[in-house]
Amino acid sequence: MPERLLEGKTVVVTGGSMGIGYVCAEEIVSAGGAVVICARGERDLDSARDRLARLPGAVVHGVRADVTAQRDLDCVLDAAVGVPGHALHGVVHCAGIYGPIGPAVAVDPEAWLEAIRVNLFGTFLVARSVCRRLIDSGVRGSLVLLSGGGAATPFPNYTAYACAKVGVVRFTETLAQETAEYGIRVNCVAPGLVATRLHDQTLAAGDARAGKSFHEKTKAELARGGVPASVAARAAVFLLSERAAQITGRFLAAPYDSWDAWPDHANQFAGSDLFTLRRIVPRDRGMDWQ
């Protein structure tokens, strides 16, 4: 039986009707938490809510919402704070889009800006809204924001997505410092290449727009089944739980980092730049010319 790490806690999951978001919602329910999922598509949202409601002990609500609209977010959070016997504890923010695929000199500027609006501004708006509710209630909660491809390395032909996701990492680090006095923790997770609908766009774009290397890598990874969504979902539950009470402002790569052992090294996290984005200077590579 899974550990009941989130007993009595309500967690909002954006993009919770499918893919990584849906599996995160499953893991939260299995960990004893109540979950409020939101998504833009009402049919998929209703289907996901009904499936989650069949899990043992499930407390599940679904609210149709666009994460870039404050009014929608207010409705989601009103539902979350109204769950009987549970307190709003935080969010797993999974909603996102790839945006335009192709060289920066060729993509449509408006589509590029829209991807930034959804992926970065949407993350800001969700995190801001949740933090305001947690501060008002005095709850020492936890935010888990999804980062991804392009956050740690260049991602040619996906500049809007990459720029938004690296922005999510720096936003995570900064918001973690701003909210530390309230006992709120903020971390972000890179889930790896999970087989979701997002990658259909890469397959459709082909070598010419997606780039031969990434197009072939995507096909190969999907043929192997990709990284299970449950890997990121378990990492999210860990970060939401008290097991990660000393972990904040970190960038976790779910398939590669031994995050379940992080509590054993909590004293090494304090004051360090472990699992963060930093500028590399010559001395970091054993050079002495600066």
Question: If you had to describe this structure to a student in words, what would you say it looks like?
Answer:
The protein has a 7-stranded parallel beta sheet, sandwiched between helices. Helix content is 44%, strand content 13%. It is of the alpha/beta class. The radius of gyration is 19 Å and the shape is globular. The protein has a single domain, classed as 3-Layer(aba) Sandwich (Rossmann fold). Helix 4 packs parallel to helix 5 and helix 6 packs antiparallel against helix 7.
How many domain units?
A: 1
Low-pLDDT sequence parts: none
Helix content bin: 40-55%
Strand order of the largest sheet: 3-2-1-4-5-6-7
What is the chain-wise order of helices and strands? EHEHEHEHEHEHHHEH
Measure the end-to-end span: 55 Å
Q: What is the class in the CATH system?
A: Alpha Beta
Q: Looking at the structure, what is the overall shape?
A: globular
Mean pLDDT: 94
Annotation field: number of helices: 9
CATH topology: Rossmann fold
In angstroms, what is the radius of gyration? 19 Å
Structural class: alpha/beta
Fraction of residues in β-strands: 5-15%
Number of beta strands: 7
Q: Please outline the major beta sheet.
A: 7 strands, parallel
Instruction: Give the CATH superfamily.
Output: NAD(P)-binding Rossmann-like Domain
**CATH 2nd-level architecture:** 3-Layer(aba) Sandwich
